[in-house]
Amino acid sequence: MFALHLRWYSMKHIHIFKNFITLFTAAAVLLVFISCEQISGGGEKTSSSSSSGSKITSLVVDSTTKAIYVDQDSNISTFSKETTTLRAMGTYCNVWIVSDNYTSGSSSSGEKISSSLAKTLAEKFDAIYPMVRKIFGDESEKIYLYNSSTFASSTSSASLSSSDTTTATSSDTWTYESSSPVYEIGSDISSITISGLSSGQEVYLAKTNTSSSEAVSSSYSRYVSEGSGLTLSTAESSSDQTGSGSGSPKSSITNFVAPVDLSPSRFAKGSRSARSASTISEVSMSDYDDTGSYTVNGTSYQKVNIVVYDIGNDYTASSGSSTGIVGYFYAKDYYYSSSTTNSVIDYSNVGKYFYIDAYYAVDYTDTVYSTLAHEFQHMINWGVKDMDQGLDPSTWYNEMMSMLSEDMMRNYLGLDYDDAPEDRLPLFERCYKDNGLEYRSTSSYLTLLSYANSYAFGAWVLRQFGGVQVLADMSSNAYVDMSSVVHAVNSVNGTSYDAEDLLKMYAEACIFNTTDSSYAYPTFNQAAAETLSYSDDSTTYTYPLEALDLWNLADLFTSSFTSSYSNTTYYKYDGPELYGYNAAYEIRPYGMTLVDVGEVTDSTVTLTFSTNGSGTEHLYIMVQ
Amino acid sequence: MKMKLFFAVCAVCTAALLFSSFARRPANTISGYVHMYGNAPFSFPGFETDNGKRYTLVLDEKKSGTLTLEELESLQGQRVELHGAVRTESGAVEAGINRLKDGEFVVYSYKVIGNQ
Q: Quick one: closest CA in A to B37, which residue?
């Protein structure tokens, strides 16, 4: 519209146009001048801790108090200051406890934290702090200074170079060999004849969706319609296969172990609506944070603050926590504004903060130790991906990284698998097909499944491709989401896989329950290579990631865990769910459906497939 | 003199309209996919268009009707068209928190195009 006006003036009223330009320029300069005045005025800092009360000059355990913004409701959408007291101080952290959640007694109970537990939290975090940083990198020492004007961010986009898959797609005959038990079914293949088989072998079909964005609907999901030379498995009910994953339970899970930062309902319209125009610049956190620092090799770093209270204000003596939130990191604390922004920045604590629920700290203490590693990864990820590189990590990727942080620290922390991310695997095994590698929080079921699927994929990647070296590469590379995973795997292994390759191998790892050495089966069931280690004066840690036998998960957990969560509606311990030969469920983005086609009865098997298909669905016949 | 005054007023008004954050932005339609970004429990819906632009999805009290962000989140996995307005030069969501690279898209309505 502006361009059209210029053209009209230039043709008909050139002298007027000159006047217009002159005056317009003057007006624009005037406006910009006024705007700049506002910026400089608004950006002046009057206090280094204006959002947190008066500046702290020294930190003394059991004496120093600080008003810290904490959430007030189960939606984690309102914040107000609560008085906290420094109850423990480590080399790298402070532990602050809200007054209502502190007990001066010797033992913690309910949602009351004792000084002893606070000290233990500080010790645990101190121990894992340098180990987590060794893999993920350092959390940012900068914060965003918020002023009034316009903010613009930049980002780089990741692209994957595709590589060839390992199997042919054009032939409709295949001679099975034990050294090559996987065959991709091309989109143009309507039937396939497999020879070289032996009675008793099992034929499987794995269907993956290589789209990061679009599901393959049930009506386009190809399936085996007929078969000869084998006993077909039990057919799936057609009524189960309409709609989105209707074959699995949909009711809400109310009792769940290790519900790390489960998303609350926070979708009230306008609760986080647009704010006034702003400019954001990076400044040193040390100029604004008053919670202390430590020095290594002459470099000063701000301490991490762990705030313990009743997250979501949801504690009851009878039911504990209703939101299921164990802890969280919120990037708002990496912002500072000297003036009101009418945004959540007004509730920034201006520094390195994450938050731990008091009830979980008391009743699920080991889970909380694991959560320290989880939330600290989020803090680092915010610095290395968002702040330093301007990237936009998807939620599933960010949560996967945090669960892998827990995974790599489990051994050091001496935690049972019950209290580690491995406890998400039974849900993955039973319900994986209802979600892909994506984050859906519209129900508790989908939220928990989002975590379970993301962890399972990441756990397999690390055990398959080089342990924490891959994780370190994922954290530091210039990508996020699947691109980050693919680039890290290829960087560490000198390979040229793409997402399609990884999903195919992942499906194999979920189908092949064998130790047969004739084929290099992808598997969860091998300890990750210990490719990096951490050492200091007293500790050497190699980040062991133990083998995970998907077909004997019960062996991982304590008997009390498996007995408490033995409901097979939601949990499965003896391998991923395999569906009937004609299964045609929706396949979610980066998701999969695993099918047991049937048991071989002849040396030659012929399978006929439905003809509907989609461009991103990939079918693989697997024989064991 | 009157002429100059007239054009001065015009220029100031034009500039004010152009630079004001209250300037009306044309509604348009974009197609692509909804994804969730950020760490839980503060994840938020964003939109990646067919030509690679990425917007934070936001709602407007007056123009978005009964739409909710939860409803937009549930569109994941489907190709959709969003009708609304791009907001790039102002109103950064939470002043930079939860703000994707191309700004915000205020959703007035949507249409599911379908999936494969």
A: A394
